Amino acid sequence: MPVAEILAGIALVKSSVDFIKSNIDTCKDIGEIGSAIDGLLRGKDEVEKRANKRGMGVAEQFDTAHIAREAIDARLAAEQLQEISNMINLRFGPNTWREIMEERARRIQEHKQAQKQARIKARKESAELWSDIKAILLVIGAIMVAFAGVGAAIYYS
């Protein structure tokens, strides 16, 4: 895995944290730093995904520097997330961060469920289409057999 990809996740975390820290005291509502919170969470997810990624090359699996960078970046991201959650709770109330995380989890779950339902619907529509195609082919086949039978009867009579 290229070093640039690993650094992208932690860089997103750091830039989001810097923005939140510099604006937390002046913002009037959580929406003003919402995109930075989103960047922080996406960056943390990227760092974790890269740290847990399977299918990396043999050299990367045993490269101590690579392993250390992934582990440290994951811990730094977790520390930054904890620090920001404390800052947001102090600024907007004790349960604000938990409410944000619960709402985010709910929306992610709804999105996954909607995708699952869309896949089920597409599969069902595909099955119905193939069923219709099979029925049409059977009818055409039956008509061809009937014409062949009539043609043979005329030919042999």
Percentage beta strand? under 5%
Instruction: Let me know the average pLDDT.
Output: 86
The total of helices stands at 5
The biggest sheet, with number of strands, parallel, antiparallel or mixed sense and barrel status, is: none
- The proportion of residues forming helix, as a percent range, comes to over 70%
Question: Overall 3D geometry?
Answer: elongated
User: How do the helices and strands follow one another from N- to C-terminus?
Assistant: HHHHH
The radius of gyration is 29 Å
Find the structural class using helix and strand composition.
mainly alpha
Annotation, overall tally of beta strands: 0
Low-confidence stretches: none
The span between the termini is 78 Å
